[in-house]
Every structure is written in structure tokens, then in C-alpha cells.
Amino acid sequence: MKDNGKNMRLREWLIAQIDSGKYAGLSWENQEKTMFRIPWKHAAKQDYKQDEDAALFKAWAVYKGKYREGKDRADPSTWKTRLRCALNKSTDFLEVPQRSQLDISEPYKVYQIQAEGGSPIVSPGPHAILLGSQPDMPLNVPASLRPQISSRPEVDADWKERVDSYGQTQHPVPLDTEKQDQRAPTDCDMRIKTESLPWPESRGSDCAPAHHLLPTTHLPMLRVTDFRLQVRLYYQGQQVQDVTTTTPDGCWILQGSAPVENERIYGPCTAEQVRFPPPKLTQVPSGIAEAMARLLPHLERGVLLWVAPDGVFTKRFCQGRVYWHGPLAQHQDKPNKLDREKTCKLLDTPIFLRELQQYLYAGGPTPRFEIDLCFGEEFPESSQNKAKKLITARVEPLFARTLLQSIKRSEPEVMAAVQMVRTGTEGN
Predict the structure, then answer these.
(1) How many whole angstroms separate alpha carbon 356 and alpha carbon 327?
(2) CATH topology for 1-117?
(3) Candidate CATH numbers 2.60.200.10, 3.40.50.150, 2.70.70.10, 2.30.110.10; the one for domain 130-428
(4) 266 pLDDT higher than 50
(5) Is 369's pLDDT higher than 50?
(6) pLDDT digits (tens, 9 = 90+) for 118-154
């Protein structure tokens, strides 16, 4: 197949490159030619050779008209990011992490080629989760929970990984590379989809010990499809803003406008902008309003928050200090500061699901998913109430809240189903 036409999709173009044998390390993974290896060496490695290790990424940039030899500055990290983004947003490919090898001298990733159109395989039978020790004994999920989880993977959403100034890959950041469905998802929409959910094996006691719980490494195909965030802003404990994001790009919380330089690097970002309202327009005391007015100029550029398949992330851009508290916070009664221009993970989805499992089956505590931000003042502090802080924000990922609420509503039904499975197992 020739690759000189400009109308080929990534699927056709990439298959042509694999078959050409031009690129070292780019090869078929199986005889059926349904999976392939793609070289994935980091530019920081001592043995990195741009002409060889970045050749495929450069070829894609040239093909898409994003790089002109002799006119544009060579940027291997950006080339790699572009192809990675194209692979992840395409419905033709699905990464296979368990086959990838990223810690060897010649690292590579493995991708599976999906059926034409990327249509996910749908089980004709009822939704079921297979118990680890009894693969032939499915645990039927209650009807009220079926919209929340699925036993089948789904192709990833549109993602582009953020690259820092050293070309190192950090956590994925969603970008609006294609038009998304802007309607607010209903309770009937899929929230989480995974190939292997962390449900426990059949138990011999009422409380499942920790070793019965699947570790997070059993969740390689986790997919979150509800990327909305609810953001509430507070001025000294008084709510002044309540916004629910409607795009998968997350949101900025800021004074002023989002940093424009990011568009030059990553393309137009449609993350919603949640701005601090002028203190004088709120009902806070005049003295407090004056203090807030002095603080707000330091919050220009703000913080960016987004939901990725594996959790909730943030990145601080403003000069003013920002502190946070949440499920992954290092300290519970001492300040946790967000470092400037460094990605910080605020919630880990596999951990949340594991805690949800412990809550449902082992009587564990209710999983936490709320995230608090405090602008300009140290937080948390054991000696001061959050309501005393000048400016705070409460951020909640809706997929976590909706899933927890569904679990609570369905708890008796789920427990009855588990008991039936356990009884049937013990009787065999």
C-alpha cells in the first residue's frame, strides 16, 4: 500500500509503515496481524538516536503537514506526542499494556487493531462480573448498577499527554481534538468500563480479608466515560459559584484568562473557565472583600483540573500559593502545597474502586472522592476551620459520586446476589 496519499486514515497509514519494514522495532506482534509493536524509547536515554528512534513519529508529523523539513525546528517530543494522541483518540486502536515493555533497552508499546469503525464487542448475554475463583459462575450485576460498570473495555477517549520542558511524559491531559457530545450524561450512560473489575473472590466469612481484594494492577483496561467535575467556590465559607463542567477537557479555576501559551504547544484547549467573582458583588464583609481583592491578582492563570481514565489531576499555573486536601493528600492535618507547573494527582480511580469494593463487601469506610483547594492560605490546619479561609473550592468528580450513590442504593440487592453465589459455591 502506498503512503503518499494525503487522505489515508491513521489505520491505513500505520499498517503501510509496518508492512514496509522501514522502521526498526515497528513490527507485527502476532501472525494474525491484529496487534503490533511500536518503539517507544524516551528521548532522555543516553543511547537515544533521533534519526532512528524518532523516525516513525517524524514521518507522521510530516504526513500530517505538522513538520516541514528544513523549515520547522525538529522537536521529537512533540512528534511523539502527536502520534500518541492520534493512537489514543482513534477508535481503530486499543493499547495492550500487559504486552508492552517500557523498562528494557529497546522499549515498545503494543496496540491492538480494532474491528472497522472501532465498534466495541458487546456481550449478547446479561451484564455479569466473573468471580476470580469461579470463572464459570457469574455475579449478575443489579439493574441499577449496570449503567455504571461493564465487563467489556471501551476505546479510550481523546487524550494527549502533557510534555514538560524536558520532553518527559507526564499524566495525560484531555484536549478537544474532535467534537464531543456536549449533552450532560444521564444515569443511563456508562460511567466506568473495565475488562477486569476488582470484585472479590467468593468468601468463606462475612468480612473479606485484604488479600482477597484484587490489586490495582488488575485494572489495566479501566475506562471512565463521565469526565464531568462539579466545582463550588467559597468566600470565607459562603458559596459564591457552583459549576458543573460539560466537556472532557476539565476546567480552569482562575482570575482572568487561561494561559495562552498552552495553545501554542498543545493546540486549542476547550477546558471551561471558572472565574472568581468580584468580592464586592458578594455578601462578604467589606474588610474581607478588601483582603480578597488583594489576593485575587495573584491567582491569574489559576489551576487546571481534569479527569483522566486513572484519576483526577491538577496543575497550578498561578503565582499565588494553592493548598489542597483529598484522598491522596500526604497530610491530613498539615498543609499540602501544589507545586507550580507540576502535575499532581488528586484522586486515583483504581484505589477509589478498591475502597468502594471494601466498603460494599467488607464493611470498610465510605470511599472519599471530594477534593478541597485553598488559595493563598495554608490548608489544612488542625487549628482553623475551612470556613475561615478567604477563598476555597470543593471539587467532585461526578463519576465517583454517582457510582457511590448507586452502590448505596443497590447495596441490599448486591449483597443478596453475593450471598446466592457464595451459597451455590459452598454447595458444590
Answers:
(1) 13
(2) Arc Repressor Mutant, subunit A (1.10.10)
(3) 2.60.200.10
(4) no
(5) yes
(6) 443 333 232 222 222 233 323 333 344 433 333 333 3
Tell me if 414 sits within 8 A of 143, measured CB to CB: no
Q: Quick check: 48 and 124 in contact, CB under 8 A?
A: no
Q: Tens digit of pLDDT for each residue in 40-83?
A: 998 878 788 888 999 999 999 999 999 998 888 888 888 998 89
User: How far, in Å, CA of 363 to CA of 361, rounded?
Assistant: 6
